[in-house]
Amino acid sequence: EAAEKGGYPHFVIKEINEQPEALRRALTGRSRDGQLHLPELERMEHAGLLNNIQRILVVACGTSYHAGMIAKYAIEKWARIPVETITAAEFRYCDPIVGPETLCIAVTQSGETADTLVGIRQAREHGAPVIAVTNIVSSAITRLADAVLYLQAGPEIGVVATKTFVSSVAVLYMLGLYLGQSRGRIQPEQMREFLAAMDQLPDQIQRILDQANSEGDIIEPLAKRMASVNSMMFIGRGVGYPTALEGALKLKEISYIHAEGFPAGELKHGSIALLDPETPLVGIATASHVYEKVVSNIQEVRARDAHIIVVATEGDENIRQHADDIMYVPDTLEIFSPLLASVPLQLFAYHVAVARGCNVDQPRNLAKSVTVE
Ligand code: G6P
C-alpha cells in the first residue's frame, strides 16, 4: 500500500497532488484551431438529439452535485440554455418535467450512485437525452446514456472526491463551451480566450500545490490552529457559492467539523445568528464581478468578531484589511475560479483532519460510491 501511495502519507493528499495531471488529461486534445472538440457527442448531434434542447437538468449527488452547480453558471453563460442542477435523491421524487427537449447530464464519478441511476432511468423513460460524466469506464451510468464524457482522472482511492471533482468541473466547462459553440453563441476570439485560460489551469493548480508544499506556507499551520473549532462557515457568491459549498463539504466529510456553505448575501437572512468569535468564516473572494459584494458580506461577519479566512486572487492587497488569514490563488477568468479556489480548501480540510487524527482516506459513515438508495 505504501508503494501505491507514491510516497505520500495518504491517498487523499496524493490525489490532491495529482490534480494538475488529471486536469491535463481531461483537457488534452479538446481544442484545435480555436474550436472545442467533443467527438463523443457526434452521434447525438447526428441523431438530432441536441438540436431542440430547451432546458438542461444536471443530476448528481455530493461533490458531483457541486460540480453540477458550477456547470449551471458556465452553461447558462456560454450556451444561454436554462440549467437546473438538482440533487438526484430529490429529482426522482419531484415528478420532474422532462421530455425529449430536456437534456439530462448525469455527473457521477463512480458511475454507480443509485440515486443518480434511478433518476436518470426515469428521465430516459420520459424521452430525455442523457449525457453521462463519469470516471469509470463501463460503469452503470454509461449504459443509460446516449453519450459518455470520461474524466480520465485515474483511480481515486480516497473516499472524498478531490481530483474527480476538478476533472468533472473541467469536463462540464468543455460541455458548456461546446454547446455555446454549436449554437453560435461564442465568437471565435472569445473561444480562443476561454481555451487559452483553460489551458493554463493545470499549471496554475501546480503552482498552488508547490506553494503549499513549500517552507513557510500558511495552509498547514492555519489548519492546525483551526483543528479544535466546533463549527465553520463558508460563503461565496456566483461560482464562489458552489465553491463554498464544496469547501464546507470537504471539511465536514474528512475532519467531522460542522461546516456549512452559504451564498454570501443570504447569510444575513438568518444564518449570521450562528456566528461568534469561536466560529471561523471562510470567504471566497477571488476576482469577480461580485468581489465588492463578497467583501462587504465579509465585513458584516467581521463585525461579529469571527476569525476570517479568505481565498483571494494573487495581487489583491486590498483584502488584507478584511482578513485574518489569506490563501492566495492565481488569477484566471471568473468562471474558472472554482477550479483554483477549491484546491487550498481541499488542502485545508486535509490538514485539519490529519491534525485531528481522523481517518482521512476512509472517513466514518461514508462510502466511495453509494449503490443503495
Ligand atoms: C458518496 C461519496 C461522495 C460523493 C457522492 C457521489 O456519497 O461519499 O464523496 O460525492 O457519493 O458520488 P458519485 O460517484 O456519484 O460522484
TrEMBL record:
Per its UniProt entry, which superkingdom is the organism in? Bacteria
The keyword Metal-binding appears for this protein = no
What Enzyme Commission number(s) appear in the record?
2.6.1.16
> Which is an annotated GO molecular function term of this record?
transaminase activity
Indicate the segments forming the SIS domain, all copies: 46-185, 222-363
Query: Which keywords label this protein?
Result: Aminotransferase, Cytoplasm, Glutamine amidotransferase, Repeat, Transferase
Q: Where is the active site?
A: K368
Which cellular compartments is it found in? Cytoplasm
Predominant subcellular localization, coarse grouping: cytoplasm
What does this protein's UniProt record list under function? Catalyzes the first step in hexosamine metabolism, converting fructose-6P into glucosamine-6P using glutamine as a nitrogen source.
Q: What is this protein called?
A: Glutamine--fructose-6-phosphate aminotransferase [isomerizing]
Source organism (scientific name): Dictyobacter halimunensis
Gene expressing this chain: glmS
| Whole-protein residues included | 250 to 622 of 622
